[in-house]
């Protein structure tokens, strides 16, 4: 089912916008709900206001003031419904007036905004987010989508491995010694691809204080994060911790692994990278600062590379996921019967 916000009430749509902005690092957000009614008739021209931290090329920081007007319409938003927001923004002069439409702005409204900007040259920028933008901006924010019932199907269920499902249905009574015995027998590259993120959770490496802004997280680690260190850590645990540790470790590892291996989410992942690329390209077009342009051009390389590699990388992860389920999880399921 395609992404839609039509089932939300007016106040729920405003709250969705508020939560979306909060997830995007806006601060000092205020939802100006004027009455106890379903919508906000007393919002004085904007439903939400907040600030977004910006950084200059010299490293100094400042907050942009944003006014956000939320328009929940099944059809296109007409011109007269945005006039109060323009009036208020022209009076209070935020840095940005953002108009969020649950579907789209009508063509007369878009023409009206273009004419308004030509004739009035407002001291604030006008941005528009429509349904396709809200879809892209909320990609990967599963808690947000679940809160507003925007995930209408579980399309990934058919590609879940049956041993993954069986293992997570109820706690298993596996020993650490048997887990390590099985992990020792796995292909080393596939084992590290599957479990590297969870090694960190178990080893909990120490970090030193950085001495250079060019240092990476790996440069700062004082303890190795690899299979040998994980293995040593496991054998240092008491037998009392064994069963619960193994179950938590395996279920967390499978969750992390499937998150990167979900072949049904490739389109969502691609849309995220496309949005990042478009956002950076927009910023490049809006500045004449050569240092900033060069920085943005470097930034755009990563999502561009990820976009081109996504299908093959996800398929590779999915193959590894099934390998782990067949060669590790399947055998964990029968330990209590054979040992």
From TrEMBL:
Lineage: Bacteria, Pseudomonadati, Pseudomonadota, Gammaproteobacteria, Aeromonadales
InterPro entries, per the entry: Restrct_endonuc-II-like (IPR011335), Restrct_endonuc_IV_Mrr (IPR007560), tRNA_endonuc-like_dom_sf (IPR011856)
Ranges for domain Restriction endonuclease type IV Mrr: 6-136
GO terms for biological process, alphabetical: DNA restriction-modification system
Gene Ontology MF term list: DNA binding; endonuclease activity
Naturally occurring in which organism (per UniProt): Aeromonas cavernicola
The protein's name in its UniProt record: Restriction endonuclease type IV Mrr domain-containing protein
